[in-house]
Amino acid sequence: MKQLTVSQVNHQIKGLLDTTFVDSCVAGEIGNLTYASSGHIYFTIKDDSSTMSCVMFRGNATRLKFALKVGLQIVIYGSITVYVPRGAYQLICKTVEPSGVGGLNLAYEQLKTKLQNMGYFDPNIKKPLPKFIDKLYLLTSNSGAVIEDMKKIAASRWPLVKISLIHTAVQGGTARDSIVSNIAIADQLALKDSGDGYCSVIVLARGGGSLEDLWCFNEELVATAVKNCQSIIVSAIGHESDWTICDMVCDRRASTPSNAMEILLNDQNEYRQYLDDMGDNINYCLKSLVQKSQQNLDHTKELLSSFSIKNKITTNQNSLNVMRQYISQAIWQTIHTKQNELNNIVLNLSNMNPKDKKYDNIVKLTKDDKTVKLEQLKINDTITLQSNKLQVSSKVLGIRAI
Fold first, then answer.
1. What is the three-class DSSP state of 2?
2. CATH of the domain at 88
3. 316-326 burial: b if 16+ Cβ within 10 Å, else e
4. What DSSP string describes 323-351?
C-alpha cells in the first residue's frame, strides 16, 4: 500500500468532493454566524443530528438581499469542498434563500423593521405639500409611457408648472446608484429654487412591475437618500397595490405616477371657477360698499345741513319770533291783570270816600277814649259813638244777643 501524506489525502478528498458535489442544494438552520471584515460570511447549518460548515465569499455575499441570522431556516445552493490546510470540508454558498419565503420578501421585511426602529417612517419628520408648485423635478426614465403620462396630466391640470426631467435608471444593477445620485442633484436644484423664491418638489416615479423589478426602491441606500433629502420628495412607484420602502420614507406617497400629478398640481378648472366666484363676490361687495357709502353720504349731508349757518339763523329767527310773541302776550296779560287790579282798587277807594253820603253811619266806638268792640261793652258803661259827622256820648242800658 502506497503511503500518502496528509495533504495528499486532503487533496484527493477535495477532488472527489469537487466532482461529486458540484451543484448541491442543502437545507438547514443557521447556527454559528460570523460576518468577517473581509466581507465573507462564515456560519454553520444544522438539523436535528448534524452540522455543516459553510462559507459565503464577498462576491456572492454582496448579492444577498436579506440578512442571515442565527436560527433562520435557509436553503443553500452551492458546492461542497475541502479546505485542505485544515482538512475540513465545507459548503461553498453561491446563493441562499430563506426556507418557505422568498428572499426578497424576507429582505423587505427585515429592512422595513430596521428602518422603522431608526425612525425613518416617523410622520412628524415628513414635510407638508405646498399649495402651489412652481417646478417639478421628475426622477424617472426618459423613455416609456410614464413620463409622457405625467407631462400630459400636468399640462391639463396646471400648465404653469415647469417640469425638469432628470433621467434616472429605475431598474437593474445601476438603478440604486443612479437614484441616490440623482436625488442629491435634484435636492440641490430645489434648494437653489427655494433661495430664489420658487417652490419645487421632487418626484421619484416608475411604472408597475414585479418585486424584483421594483427592488431598487427597497434598497437601504435609496431609503437613506430619500430621508436625508432636504426638499419635498414624493414617491410614485408602480401600481396602487405596490408598496416600497421609499413609499414609507418619502414625504408623500402617490399610488401611481399619474396620481402624483393629481396630488401635487391644482386643477386649473377649479381655480377658474373659483376666480369667477371670487369676481362675483367682489362685484357684490363693491356694489354693497358703494350703496352703503352713498347712504352714509346722504346721512352726512343731512347732518351738515342741520348745522349750516343759514339753517341756524332761520331756526334762531323763528325762536326769536316765538319768544317775541310770547313776551308780548305776557306783557299784555300782565297789563290787563294790573289794570283790573287798579280798577278794583279805585272802585274800593271810591266806595270808602268819607264824603260820600252813604257812609253817614257809625264808624268808631270808644270807651274811656279807647276803641272797643260791641262784645266788650257792659251795662252802665259810658261810651262814645262817632260818625263822619257827629259824636254822641251815651250809657249802655241793656245788652241782648241777637
1. coil
2. 2.40.50.140
3. eeeeeeeeeee
4. HHHHHHHHHHHHHHHHHHHHHHHHHHHHH
Measured between alpha carbons, how far is residue 182 from residues 139, 149, 232 in Å? 7, 21, 14
Rounded to 5°, the CA angle 290-294-296 comes to: 115
Residue 304 lies in a domain: no
User: pTM of the full predicted structure?
Assistant: 0.57
**Residue 320: inside a domain:** no
Q: What are phi and psi of 259, to 5 degrees?
A: -65, -30
Q: How far is CA 12 from CA 7, 92, 229, in A?
A: 9, 18, 58
Residue 401: inside a domain: no
Q: Both 161 and 211 in a single domain?
A: yes
Alpha helices in 58-144 (DSSP H): 58-61, 103-117
Residue 253 has pLDDT above 80, yes or no: yes
Please tell me the predicted confidence (pLDDT) of residue 60.
92
Phi, psi of 374 (to 5 degrees): -60, -35
Grid cell for residue 141: 426614465
Burial of 122 (0-12, 13-18, 19+ CB in 10 A): exposed
Decide if 226 contacts 246 (C-beta within 8 A): yes
Contact 225, 194 (CB under 8 A): no
Cross-strand bridge partners of residue 155: none
Asked if 118 and 243 sit in the same domain, the reply is: yes
Residue 387 has pLDDT above 80, yes or no: no
Name the residue among 75, 43, 78, 45 with its Cα closest to residue 60: 78
Domain span at residue 186?
111-123+130-264
| Contacts with 57 (C-beta within 8 Å, 6 or more apart), sequence order | 39, 40, 92
Q: What is the pLDDT of residues 17-59, one digit of tens each?
A: 877 787 888 989 998 999 999 999 999 999 888 999 999 999 9
159 and 218 fall within a common domain: yes
Domain count, the chain: 4
Per the CB < 8 A criterion, the answer to whether 132 and 197 are in contact is no
